[in-house]
Design a protein that fits this description.
By secondary structure, the protein is α/β, with parallel strands linked by helices. It has six helices and 15 strands.
Length: 240
């Protein structure tokens, strides 16, 4: 069986090429983001990346990157380092209007691209990719800027927009524990975007706090089966 356990985050992201499309798990909190994989990718230096994520300006672990006393979130270290060409996300702006995030500044300067996707639609587009669906219709975004350039159809008396699946070359996700076969269990908010993104990328890299031997996990607790996971790396978390 192929060894899925990598010794370091740097090794786990070493082959991500320029121009890759990468899903980054997490809702927007430090506990549910693959922070160490993101930092390793920053050091690896791949550029012209397309990031699919919940937010390009949502706070994560502050202080992971900084410039002039301003702290950056996890994804922002890639943006600030000029590694990102495009973001597909639901929250492209800082939650504090007086402190614009790196992505806002670059977008307003015409230096990065943005595909804004309502959060529910974002999740469903990722889920559709994992389920092998061709497309789906949703009423979300009808009558707004979201509908521009999209096919519309009336279903059950409602206008609907045609949305297509989102797939990635790589997914960087965070889980609590894995076994050596890649089966994953999550804690709390870790389950948010991480679990669904694990189904929609060619190569899935999971940052976990613990790795145990195959057979040690309770099968009823496994959320993501190991068949979806290609690489796992253990980065012990803080004791709760």
């Amino acid at each position: 069986m192929k060894n899925k356990v990598f010794a370091t985050c740097s090794e786990a992201v070493a082959d991500i090429p320029d121009g890759a499309t990468i899903m980054v798990g997490g809702f927007g909190h430090a506990a549910d983001k693959p922070q160490n994989l993101i930092a390793a990718l920053k050091n690896q230096g791949a550029r012209k990346l397309t990031l699919i994520m919940n937010g390009a300006g949502v706070s994560g672990r502050l202080g992971i990157g900084s410039l002039g006393g301003v702290s950056f979130t996890d994804e922002e270290i890639l943006i600030e380092n000029r590694q990102v060409k495009k973001a597909v996300c639901s929250v492209p702006a800082s939650l504090v209007m007086s402190k614009p995030c790196a992505f806002e500044k670059q977008y307003l300067a015409g230096e990065v691209e943005l595909e804004y996707v309502p959060q529910g639609t974002l999740v469903e587009r990722i889920r559709a990719a994992g389920a092998g669906l061709g497309a789906f219709y949703t009423p979300t975004g009808v009558g707004t800027l979201i509908e521009q350039g999209k096919e519309k159809r009336i279903i059950d008396g409602k206008e609907m927009l045609l949305e297509f699946p989102l797939r990635a070359d790589f997914a960087l996700i965070k889980a609590y524990c894995a076994d050596t076969m890649g089966n994953l269990i999550y804690r709390g908010i870790m389950r948010s975007f991480n679990a669904i993104m694990a189904t929609a990328a060619k190569v899935v890299v999971a940052e976990v706090e613990r790795i145990v031997e195959a057979g040690e996990l309770d099968p009823e607790s496994v959320v993501t089966p190991g068949i979806f996971i290609d690489r796992i790396v253990a980065v012990p978390g803080e004791e709760k």
